[in-house]
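Sequence only, no structure available. Ideas?
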Amino acid sequence: MHFPKSFIAGFWLPLLGVVASAQTPLTLKQVLEQVRVNSPVLRVDRLNISVAQANQVTANLRPNPILNNQTLFQLSPTPVTPMVAEVNGALSRQRRQFWLQATKEFDVFHKRQYRNRFAEANTNLAVKSVAETERGLLFDAANLFLDAWYARIQLALLQRAKANVDTLVQLNKVRLKDLVINSTELTRTQLLSDRFDLQTRTARQDLRNRLTELRLVLGTTDSVTVALSDSIVRPDFTDPLSLYPSVEASADSLLRLAALTRTDVQVASANLETARRNVDLQQVLAKPRNEAGLIWNPQNAVPYAGVFLTLELPFYSRNQGEIQKSQVLVDQANQAASFVQARIRSEVETAYQSFITSRQNVDRFTGIRRNADKVLGSVRYAYLRGATTLIDLLEAQRSWFETQTAYYETLYSYRQNYVRLLYVTGQINSY
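Reply:
I predicted one. Tokens follow.
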């Protein structure tokens, strides 16, 4: 019996070309770039930097001088004497006392300098905190990208399997008409096609859901899709042993990389520095305030001049509570920094081992997939020539589909582990 060439061509239809899309597919790098620019969470968080910079401006301001005026008028008239003329009015200099005082607080203990240093540390902490927020958002966005990629792979795989079965259904209709097979074989192939159709509908809806979630993270209302051909894994991580020789090593490359570039390490360090500068500030704020100035004081037409000095006497309040609190904050920041360092080793070791294992699993699937394709092709060829039964063909089809599904699940896990490795080493911020 002659079979159309379209059947053979349809069987070998490449998986990645099955699903077409009107949108330009996004790669992982493009997704992360859009998150950095468009993420509403990042836009809100970046305003904290502006707030910290405004606080720094405030901390660097010098205290304003103070001008004080007191004017007193004599209410009862001065008795007329040969020495005092009767022409003295109620507002004349002889019946008025005038006090003009100009003072300013003098920063003899350099409090403004300590406030400025503390504000600088807070600004740096805000910058590092935004970077840490970005790291978390990029990790979430990368995982959503992989979820959408895997959903699209599943849809493409189901569409390919359904296309193969649909072709077989059409051929079996012809074969039934020619009395080569019975109606049972046609019914069984039609049932398999219907099952793939239901699974395809579910997979298509799941893909829509994943793309909707990705669109929300990207901060866009436009339709998006993901590139199936994006390799994701960068070349410098294809041989991670060059970066990470041994998980038992005390100073291996990935741990050093994480300790230098991870933003949560930088946040912990900035938080510790801020706490230390706060201790210095609170201690200097315990010093007494002082204020000095000049006085000009004409009284009843007689001019006077003098100086003004105010000195706070620290008998009761010496900022004890704030000093104690700042020291507790330093201890808290130290413990947090130590915990981050301990967490780094655990996370890097776990992520690295998972990455290596999943990469080895992907490599093992190369031969398995090739054999599954050969078996399905051979069984299909034999069935169409009457050399085997429909049961054998359906079993081969099921085995092929399970093998393809297992392979892409392994590849999905491999890419997830790679993204996690980028996250725990701090490299996702520069991906």
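The chain has one domain: 8-51+117-290+323-430.
Hope that gets you unstuck.
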